[in-house]
Structure formats: C-alpha cells, structure tokens
Write a structure and sequence with these properties.
Layout (H helix, E strand, L loop, with lengths): L7 H7 L25 H6 L6 H12 L7 H9 L5 H5 L6 H14 L5 H8 L5 H16 L2 H7 L8 H9 L15 E2 L7 E5 L3 H5 L2 H13 L2 E4 L9 H5 L4 H15 L5 E4 L2 H13 L7 H10 E3 H8 L11 E5 L3 H4 L6 H8 L4 E3 L15 H4 L1 H18 L3 E4 L2 H13 L5 E4 H15 L1
Parallel strand pairs: 2-3, 2-4, 4-5, 6-7, 6-8, 8-9
Antiparallel strand pairs: 1-3
This protein binds iron/sulfur cluster (2 copies).
Length: about 450
C-alpha cells in the first residue's frame, strides 16, 4: 500500500539519526553472501537489491548520504517479508530484517499516509470488537451460500486477481468471537500447578476461535489455571511492520498493564506473530524510561503455546494415538524471530502412531507475511509454490503450523492447487491426541 507523494530529501535526513549498532552492528556485514540463499526475495528475483546484504548496504548508503531515499529504495524496503531468515544464518549477527523495520518507521514518519492504511492502523486495530464488526458482512456472505456460488464460477477472477485472492484466503468464520464464548478464568484440570495468562490475539479470536479453544484446553490439561483478559488489543505486529509506532506503543502499554494485574506465571499465545511481538516489547521499550522495566518483566513471561506445553506436559502426561504422517511448517515468527525449533517437534513426536517427516527447505517463508500476499501477490505465490513442493516431497497427510497467516496461506494453496494434505494448527492436533487418550482410558 504505497502512499502518494514523497520527499526523498526529508526521508533521507531522518536516517541520519539511525543507530546501526542497534541492529547487530551493520558495519560487521562482511558481504559474505551467506544470507542470500535464505532470503525469499533473492530466491524469487535473483538480484542484489532484493537480498539482505543489498538492503543493509542501501540503508547504510542513505544514512551516509550517498543514496537518496527515493521510490526505488522504498520499494526494496517494502519488498522484504520481514521473515528474519537472514538473521538466523548471518555469522556476523547482522539484524537485516529488524533494520528494515526501522527504515520503514523512518519512511512512514516522513511521508503522507494512505487513507485506508491510516484507518486500519490508527483506528480499526484498536479494538477487537471493532474488527469483529468489519467481519460481520463476511459471515453473511459465507452463510448465505453467496461465497460458494462466487467460488464455483470463479466470478472474482473477472474483476480482479487481488480481490479474488483476498476472498480466497478467508477461512470459514466462527459464529462469534471466542472472547464472547469463554469465561475470564478457567480452572486447571487436575492438580493446579500455577496461573497462565492467555493472550487471545485478533486473528485467533475472530477467525480461528476453535484453535484457541483447543489451546486453552491443552493448557488447563497441563495443570494450569488460565486467565483470559477480554479487553486485550492487537499485539501491534501490523503497525510495526508498516512503520507505525505511536498507536503500537499505546496498545503495547495497555497489554503490559492488563497482564501485570493478573499475577500470572506465564503469558501464552498460540499465534507465532503475536508471540514474537510480545517478546520484543522489552527491546522496543528498552530506552523508554516509563515502560522499560514493565516491558522487560512482561516479555520475560511470554511463551509460544508449543514452548509452554513442551515444558508443562511432564513425563506423566499420556498422549493418545493419531495415525498418519505429519510435517511442521515453521512460521518465520517462530523459527527465526523466536528461535524456537524443538518444542513443536518434541510435542508432535510424543503422539503415538504419528509419523513425523521434516520439510527440507530450512524454514523458508510461506509467503504470507502479514498482508504481503495481498500487496505482493505474484512474488508471494511463487514463494508459496516452492513451499507446497517442499510439503509434497515429505509425503505428509497433515501439515501443521502455529500462525494464523501461515495457516490461511497453506489452506489457500490446498484449495487452489488441489492438495490432499490437511492443514491444522498444532494445538488442534495435540488436543485431538489428548481427547483420544480419554476415550481409550
Ligand atoms: S548480512 Fe550477514 S550473512 Fe549477509 S552478507 Fe552480511 S555478514 Fe554475510
Ligand atoms: S527478513 Fe527475509 S525477506 Fe527480508 S531481507 Fe531478511 S531474509 Fe530477506
């Protein structure tokens, strides 16, 4: 979503105060090129300006006054998926993905904002009830059979490929948000070990209600009381990805206060993007006098659902059998931003009769990346094609993940390209296993 007019000089000047040492010391980039094969935009486009190394060099060029922050520069900055795969492989510790986000912040502070973007990031996102109201017409569209008709005759293809994709990405919506269906507190099943706060993110609450219901059930089965603050706002990922920091700060500050009052041992989320963002509050607010300590306390308690359950389910926990072959698609926000690889695999390997098969693409992005699949449709689809080929090679019947964007993207691929594998969130599969055990016992 590009804004209208830009003044390259003003944007360039704003880069002069950017401290590159905050991003793994960009000067340490040896230009070795090890990050190139890991970068999805290099894999699709094959040009230097679409590599982590190239983006780092361009940002450095703008800081040093050698390159203008013009439209071309901005385009390369927005072509990045913020997958952070480059950060996983860089031997020098250069944080190219995070540096790109800082560059977007400088750009957005100094150019006029697109009206839709402004509306979404400054207004709609502030309340989950508001977001629910925007989804209401889509529920009517799905329930009246209009969606089935439109899809059957592929009517939107005649209007716009972008519109068709937006429509095709939307999974069946729940009748109401999960927050309307749950009490604020649920007791542990069995002996209570402690208290867990559950961060019910927007997409999970409004789109994947059954997944979070399963996540919460899994937590109570692990022996923890679950507290679900209903007033929770968005974690801020869309804002930070689009360079917006004012509303982001307000929402983060509210979330930190909300959970502080609940006296919980851990704060769990089943959305990888939310988890990565909530864990980052400590870094983002590290230099913010009023918020730094509270943000650090908050972030230290945040756990992804797999990370939490892998520890909370002790050896006495018995899993029921689920037959089939499964593979795990690592959301970038889990593998590269949170550096979590083992917990989700440990859990899947504990399920009897479930054969685990590894994807061979070293944690490549699926191309979803927030709204990247809409704003960069063609490149996103190329990336998704490569992902589906990697899934096909495993022979898996189920592809499991833990991020709503990835799940929507994979569900789209399944429908569009007639794949036979089933797409699920890891919480659903674990819950099924635990419930199967109940029937056996
Ligand atoms: S960003 Fe890291 S991996 Fe990439 S060229 Fe620089 S030092 Fe090498
Ligand atoms: S964050 Fe991902 S898309 Fe962006 S430069 Fe790094 S590897 Fe490439």
């Amino acid at each position: 979503m590009m804004a209208q007019k830009i003044d390259a000089d003003i944007i360039s000047k704003s880069f002069s105060t950017l401290d590159i040492h905050d991003y793994g010391d960009v000067l340490q980039c040896m230009r070795c090129g090890l990050c190139l094969p890991s970068c999805p935009t290099y894999r699709t486009d094959g040009v230097e300006t679409e590599t982590p190394r190239g983006r780092v060099a361009m940002i450095k060029g703008v800081i040093d006054g050698k390159l203008p922050a013009n439209d071309e520069f901005i385009e390369h900055i927005y072509d990045c998926l913020d997958c952070r795969n480059c950060q996983t492989v860089c031997p020098a510790g250069v944080k190219a993905g995070e540096l790109v986000l800082e560059a977007r912040h400088r750009i957005e502070q100094n150019r006029p904002q697109h009206v839709i973007k402004k509306f979404m990031l400054n207004y709609a996102i502030l309340s989950q009830n508001r977001l629910a109201r925007f989804l209401s017409p889509m529920k009517i569209y799905q329930r009246t059979g209009l969606q089935a008709l439109i899809r059957k005759y592929d009517i939107l293809k005649l209007i716009s490929d972008d519109l068709r994709l937006m429509e095709a990405l939307l999974p069946p919506l729940p009748s109401k948000p999960l927050s309307e269906d749950l009490p604020e507190e649920l007791p542990a099943q069995g002996r209570e070990k402690g208290r867990v706060g559950f961060f019910l993110g927007c997409a999970m609450n409004l789109i994947f209600a059954d997944v979070s219901r399963a996540s919460i059930d899994n937590i109570t089965r692990s022996g923890y009381r679950v507290i679900i603050p209903k007033e929770v706002q968005c974690c801020g990922t869309p804002n930070i990805a689009e360079g917006e920091r004012k509303v982001y700060r307000e929402m983060a500050s509210n979330t930190i206060s909300l959970f502080r009052d609940k006296r919980v041992d851990a704060i769990v989320t089943d959305c990888a993007a939310c988890g990565a963002e909530l864990k980052t509050y400590s870094e983002i607010f590290a230099k913010d006098g009023g918020l730094s300590q509270r943000a650090a306390e908050f972030s230290s308690k945040v756990r992804d659902i797999s990370e939490f359950l892998d520890t909370a389910f002790d050896d006495s926990m018995v899993f029921g059998p689920v037959a089939g072959k499964v593979s795990f698609h690592d959301p970038c926000h889990l593998r590269h931003a949170q550096k979590l690889i083992l917990p989700q695999r440990n859990l899947l390997k504990r399920i009897p009769d479930l054969e685990y098969s590894e994807l061979s693409d070293e944690g490549q992005c699926c191309g979803s990346a927030g709204i990247y699949n809409i704003t960069h449709r063609e490149r996103s689809m190329k990336i998704l094609r490569a992902k589906t080929e990697a899934i096909d090679k495993t022979g898996a019947e189920k592809i499991v993940s833990s991020n709503p964007g990835c799940i929507m993207q994979l569900m789209y691929a399944k429908r569009e390209w007639q794949k036979t594998w089933e797409v699920q969130h890891i919480s659903e599969l674990i819950n099924r296993s635990l419930r199967t055990k109940e029937k056996i016992v």
